[in-house]
Amino acid sequence: MKDYEREIMDKEHRKQYWNLKIEQANYGSSWAIGDLFELWVSDNVFPERPFQVIDNTPHYENLNGRRCIREKYPDFHFLCNKTDNDFWVECKFRSHLEDGKLCICYESYEWEAYMDFREKSNKKLFFVVGLGGEPWDPEEVYCFDIDETKFYTPYEKQRENNIITKNFESYSELLYFN
């Protein structure tokens, strides 16, 4: 098989996967909603040329519902091709604000687990949060550095300062953004 044929097959497979996830999301599957937003983040916030995926969380259906220890890690481990810096990203999609607040985590123990992971890994950890719209087409997208975000429900001003309007081209740009 030639490279261009493989690329066409990969695009077709990805399109079929997206359609399946959208169908599952329409039936209310929170796993499918999360998977769709993760795909969107990978394609649109951290595109392939500037960033490589070192690792990503296994998808629930790949193990026929069996849980994996790796699921406790953030969704992505990226490498910036320009700077050789690696970092972690956790993706969260929220359909609406909760009492006027954007909730990155709903429980303090979740936040503490991410803080613990950040400390043990000694790598930057960012939250990319989609708000409103659909997970494959969010209305607003935010990026928060866990080191700069002291609470799991960021204040309105912090939320306004962390809205993403374009994809990132380098790790340096990501650090400057936050």
Q: Which structural class is indicated by helix and strand composition?
A: alpha+beta
Terminal residue distance: 44 Å
Number of folding domains? 1
Q: Tell me, what's the shape?
A: globular
Provide the CATH topology. Answer: Trna Endonuclease, Chain: A, domain 1
Helix content: 25-40%
The helix/strand order is: HHEEEHEEHH
Mean pLDDT: 79
Largest sheet: 5 strands, mixed
Per CATH, the class reads Alpha Beta
Rg is: 16 Å
Task: Give the neighbour order of strands across the main sheet.
Answer: 1-2-3-4-5
Strand content: 15-25%
Q: Please work out how many helical segments DSSP would assign.
A: 5
Description:
The protein has helices spanning 3-26, 30-44, 108-121, 156-161, 171-177; strands spanning 51-56, 76-80, 86-94, 125-134, 137-145. It has 178 residues and is α+β, with helices and mostly antiparallel strands. It has one domain (3-177): Trna Endonuclease, Chain: A, domain 1 (3-Layer(aba) Sandwich). It has a five-stranded mixed beta sheet with strand order 1-2-3-4-5, covered by helices on one side. Mean pLDDT is 79; it is low at 1-8.
